[in-house]
Design a protein that fits this description.
With 458 residues, this protein is an alpha+beta fold. It has 14 helices and 19 strands. The longest helix has 17 residues. The protein is globular and about 85 Å long. The termini are far apart.
Length: 458
């Protein structure tokens, strides 16, 4: 039917991605994946066959089958929609449904892709990296790697496909974007994260909601912060074994607590942190200001924590406090927004300095600065190693942040620890709540005992 439709329209040649690529040839497959966007762009017309849309459908209606078509959720169809000048939509009976230009307002509502991009009024590279990633955030592919490979043309980059590499494909895609696209919105994903403390996202899904960030010119950025143009760092970034090397304007939070205090959500300040975990997370923290802003004109800053001296993988991203100190805990905060009151402080005190930093890429977890003492909770009993009670100091129990992150990601919240201590015995108890219930409902309770004097990490 595809050939019949094309022939009736006066075309002699037709290319179909589903059957015109010899997937047994790795060379041909690699060429097709890297060239497909350009082939679509140079085509006279692209026909989009919607197998789940009936011929009687009215795509202008909000509850039409066109709005819910699986075609809008597939990863590979993003470039089929964006690249060609002309796209004609066909129903499941191969009848005409509409064109991309004629349905541009509807398609913008369905996909989030800008109207000006759809009608060809603006080039695709005028859209920030974060916004382009957001277009693909909810799209799916059969192969995990194709979530990255289907975006090569969207960002104008090329790389060899390696099926079997899994999520590493998306990391390689971001590395290629860093090398060729001067745009720091690639770092603006996920206000809170329970996954990697690195600079790069693990999948396009991380960019869901990152539609309103735009790159700033050096002049606009310098004007915003009252800087000289030569004080604005370049956007160049490079991936190294120590992390992503980049020069950023940074604020040392510990040296300027008053300025940090003017930034929403950056509380408590380091000297006010009330537990050891919180103090460790706040100490030696930099705020790196990116050359981009949100829809309200607020600059975006990433919290960077310095690693211990023996750790060589660079800084990592994230500011986190333990419940109950953090209130409603959604995971580490990886972005802050600088309102006008914070910008006024920065302009007045000029505390920013351009710093060459190496930031964790993605693969590495933040190092533990704790001692080798371990504690495990098993069958209601707290067992500890080593059993060297003599000469030890006061006892203090804390939840591990890794455990809190994993529980939060699974929809659970921990109550504060309850400790009752006698001369040689300590009773420790806590309650596990389900955050999916409203109000919070306890789902389990645990208690444990141990003897001796030491600090324990549960």
């Amino acid at each position: 039917m595809a050939c019949k439709v094309a022939r009736e329209a006066g075309y002699e040649l037709l290319w179909i991605d589903a059957c015109c690529i010899d997937k047994s040839s790795s060379a041909e497959l690699a060429e097709a994946i890297n060239s497909m966007f350009e082939w679509y762009r140079l085509s006279d017309v692209c026909y989009a066959f919607l197998a789940d849309v009936p011929h009687s459908d009215d795509p202008q209606k909000v509850y039409s089958r066109f709005w819910d078509s699986r075609w809008h959720k597939r990863g590979w169809t993003l470039q089929e929609l964006v690249a060609p000048d002309r796209v004609i939509f066909l129903t499941r009976t191969w009848t005409f449904l509409g064109t991309k230009s004629g349905l541009a307002r509807t398609i913008e509502e369905v996909t989030g892709i800008d109207f000006d991009i759809l009608i060809g009024r603006a080039p695709i590279d005028s859209v920030s990296v974060a916004r382009r990633m957001a277009w693909a955030a909810e799209r799916e592919t059969t192969r995990l790697e194709d979530r990255a490979y289907s975006l090569l043309g969207i960002f104008g980059v090329h790389m060899a496909p390696i099926y079997g590499e899994g999520p590493n494909a998306f990391l390689r895609l971001q590395d290629e974007i860093l090398r060729t696209v001067p745009d720091q919105t690639i770092f603006v994903w996920g206000r809170h994260t329970t996954s990697s403390p690195g600079l790069l996202a693990s999948s396009p899904s991380s960019f869901e909601g990152s539609t309103d960030y735009r790159v700033m010119s050096p002049v606009d950025f310098a004007s915003k912060l009252r800087l000289r143009i030569e004080e604005v760092p370049p956007l160049h970034a490079v991936a190294t074994p120590q992390g992503i090397r980049i020069k950023l304007l940074c604020l040392d939070v510990n040296k300027f607590p008053d300025i940090a205090g003017s930034i929403p959500d950056l509380q408590p300040l380091p000297e006010k942190a009330s537990c050891r975990n919180c103090r460790e997370k706040c100490t030696h923290m930099l705020l790196a200001i990116l050359r981009c802003q949100d829809r309200d004109g607020d600059l975006v800053a990433l919290p960077l924590r310095r690693s211990p001296p023996d750790h060589e993988k660079g800084l990592y991203v994230g500011y986190e406090l333990c419940p109950p100190h953090s209130g409603s805990w959604n995971g580490p905060t990886r972005m802050f927004f600088l309102p006008e009151v914070a910008l006024a402080q920065l302009r007045a005190h000029r505390p920013l300095s351009a710093v060459d930093v190496s930031i964790l890429h993605h693969h590495f977890s933040p190092p533990s600065s704790r001692s080798s003492r371990q504690v495990s909770l098993k069958k209601g009993r707290l067992r500890s190693w080593p059993l060297d009670w003599e000469g030890a100091g006061a006892v203090e129990f804390e939840f591990s942040l890794d455990s809190i992150r994993k529980l939060a990601a699974s929809g659970f919240h921990l109550s504060p620890l309850q400790c009752n201590q006698s001369s040689r015995t300590i009773d420790v108890s806590f309650t596990l709540y389900s955050t999916s219930s409203n109000p919070l409902s306890p789902v389990a309770g645990y208690s444990a005992k141990t003897e001796g004097d030491d600090r324990y990490h549960i």
